[in-house]
Structure formats: C-alpha cells, structure tokens
Design brief:
This protein has nine helices and 16 strands. By secondary structure, it is α/β, with parallel strands linked by helices. GO terms for molecular function: flavin adenine dinucleotide binding; glycine oxidase activity.
Length: 378
C-alpha cells in the first residue's frame, strides 16, 4: 500500500506527486488519459495571474511564492530530464489599462516591480505593436514558459522517480471509503489502496466526489486559444518578444517565434469543441494588438476546460469529516503559476508541518459545510 494516492495527472497533480516524493512518501498517480493533456497542456504558460491586482490577496501570496521558485524549478527539470520548459523572464506589457492606480498600489504593497511607461518606451520594447498606443504598464519580472514542454518534463521526471508510480489510462470509477475515512480508489485495472488520497481532478473533481455525497463548487470554464507561425523580422529579432495584454486578450511569444493568442471565457459545460466564432474573435484580437499577424499562418486552434470556483480561490487541504481525503483543485486560470506553491501547501498539511503561507483561505474545512455521515464503499 502506498503512502499517498493522487487522482489527476495535470500540472497540479504531477507537482504534488513530485513534492510528496521529495518529502519521502511513496506515491501512486492515477491519470485517466495521458498526464498533462487537459487544461495544463491547453493554457498559455504565463507565470502570473493576468491582472494580479484584481485577485484576492491570498492568490497574490500563493502566486508570489510560486513565481520566485520557477527559475530554479525549470533548471532542475532540464538537469533531471533534458527537456527545457522554455522558462523566459522577458516581462509583460499591459496596454490601455484603466486600472493603473490600482495596479501600482498592488505592486507597492507586495514590493513588485511595475512601472508606467510612455508610448516611446512601449514601442522600444515591441516595435510591431499597433499604432496609436499612448503608454502602458511594464512588469519586467514576469516569466512565461511553454506549458506542453513543462508537462512533458514533469511526466518524464515522475517516470524516473523511484517513489512514484505513474499509471496512465487509468480512470477512477469510485473512491473507497469506510469508518469515516478514505482508503483508496477502484479502477478498471483494480484497486489502489493508500493511507491518503489527493484529488487533483481539475474541472472533473466533482465527478469523483459526488458519489460520496460530497460537492465542491468547481465547474468547467471553456477557453479557446490559437497559435500563429511567424517569420523572423530582422536579424535574430522575432515578431514578438514579450507577453502583451490588451482588453483582456494576450499574446505570448515562444522561443521559436510562434505567437499564442488567448483566450475565451465560455460557460459550455464539458464541451471542448473549438468554434468558428471563437477563432474569428481570437484572430481579430491578435491582429488588433500585432497587425503583422494578419499575414501569418494559424497553425493550431484548440480549447481546454479550466476548473473555476465562485471566489476564484482553489481548494487545497483535507476535506471536512472525511479523514485522509485531500483536495488540490479549482485553480481556474492560475493552475500553472500556482502549482509549485499549491503542491508545497498540500504537502505541508499532509505531513503536519508549518505551512509556507497561511493556508486557511484555501482549506475546504473553512469553506464547506460538514458532510452527512458517509456510507462505506468498500
């Protein structure tokens, strides 16, 4: 029997497995498909909440802890797997924001670098931007990475760690409970027993909990994105070299010159079908920021499902009245940036050690009503 069973192999689940294994626990991770192929693969890879000053203070604390560790984490993954997640700290340009004062107050409170810049400074950084921009906000410390490469690196790492068993194509049918605690999970391939179970199911978390009479307010929020294949402009310069955010849409450059545009926000249940309407909207947004993209090939258009919560906060910690059942889910658009801190916070609670930040805002025990007496499902 393993120390911990993790259900869900996205970036949250994989980093949780890595963290717990480094803390000396034996871990089995169950993933119904291939690890990292849902929301973790579909996102953009910005290592920051999009408008961090709009977020609850608890998100800023969690994000700040993660952001400070991503450079070292990316280097470790390269050393341990040979796969480069392409972490780059090239900064972010906020254009046409009416929230400059709010943003500066937020930055001052956290001692974060954020400056107002004029049009000259904007175009000095990104000369290909649309004409008429009068200025913006500049966050030089913001990083981004190529999330499909990140999840490939994490998957390769887990396959090499002696304390981790990664079981893909292993859908969980139900959780096993008895005497007020969780004991494991049933899959088509058999039972997996563990002293503790961590559900990292993203938008599908409630599918695992509802048969027990448990419910978390986590819902799927569809997001569609596209990627453009772009030429080199002059010398070694790319068409875009920094993340740019305007009117809620963002452009993200990749190391090979490609440019991502995202993303939509849609309440569409579990439907992940890309639509023509979203394709046209994303294309228009991209061209309105970087006009040269009008002449570039759209290489791919896809969608994913973010796990949204009513207050924007993830659930991290043990479920009330179900001993041994932990949750690390509901990160909405911030799963990638919050993953290192969320994994560490979850491990702190599992191991009973002092948490790296105050966990109360995320713990289910402080946010959910007690559940009725459970019926054993052995």
């Amino acid at each position: 029997m393993q120390d911990v069973l993790i259900i869900g192999g996205g970036v949250i689940g994989m980093m949780t497995a890595w963290q717990l294994a480094e803390d000396g626990l034996s871990v089995t991770l169950l993933e119904r498909g291939e690890a990292g192929r849902e929301a973790s693969w579909a996102g953009g890879g910005i290592v920051s909440p999009l408008y961090p000053w709009r977020q609850p203070e608890a998100i800023s604390r969690l994000s700040r802890w993660s952001e400070s560790r991503y450079p070292h984490l990316a280097d470790r993954l390269i050393d341990m797997t040979g796969i480069d997640p392409e972490y780059r700290q090239n900064g972010l340009l906020y254009l046409d924001t009416a929230e400059a004062d709010m943003a500066r107050r937020w930055a001052q409170g956290l001692d974060t670098s954020l400056a107002s810049i004029d049009a000259y400074a904007v175009y000095a950084r990104e000369p290909g931007l649309v004409e008429g921009i009068e200025g913006g906000l500049w966050m030089p410390t913001l990083g981004s990475l190529r999330n499909p490469r990140l999840v490939r690196a994490l998957r390769a790492l887990l396959q090499r760690l002696p304390r981790v068993d990664l079981c893909e194509g292993c859908a969980v049918q139900r959780l096993i409970t008895g005497q007020g605690r969780v004991k494991g999970a049933v899959t088509a391939g058999g039972r997996f027993m563990a002293g503790r179970v961590v559900v990292c199911g993203g938008a599908w978390t409630n599918h695992l909990l509802s048969p027990l009479g448990l419910a978390l307010p986590v819902r799927p929020v569809k997001g569609q994105m596209m990627v453009f294949k772009t030429p080199v402009v002059t010398g070694s310069r790319q068409l875009l070299e920094r993340v740019v955010l305007r009117h809620g849409r963002y452009l993200i450059p990749r190391a090979d010159g490609r440019v991502l545009v995202g993303s939509t926000l849609e309440e569409a249940g579990f439907d992940k079908t890309p639509t023509r309407e979203a394709r046209d909207s994303l294309h228009a947004s991209a061209v309105s920021i970087l006009p040269a993209l009008a002449e570039c090939e759209i290489e791919h258009h896809w969608s994913g499902l973010r796990p949204g919560t009513p207050d924007g906060l993830p659930f991290i910690g043990e479920m009330p009245d179900v001993r041994g059942l932990f949750i690390n889910a509901g990160h909405y658009r911030n799963g990638l940036v919050l993953a290192p801190a969320s994994a560490r916070l979850l491990a702190d609670e599992v191991l009973g050690r002092r948490p790296v930040i105050d966990p109360r805002a995320f713990q289910p025990i402080h946010r959910l009503a007690p559940v009725p007496t459970m019926v054993a499902t052995d």
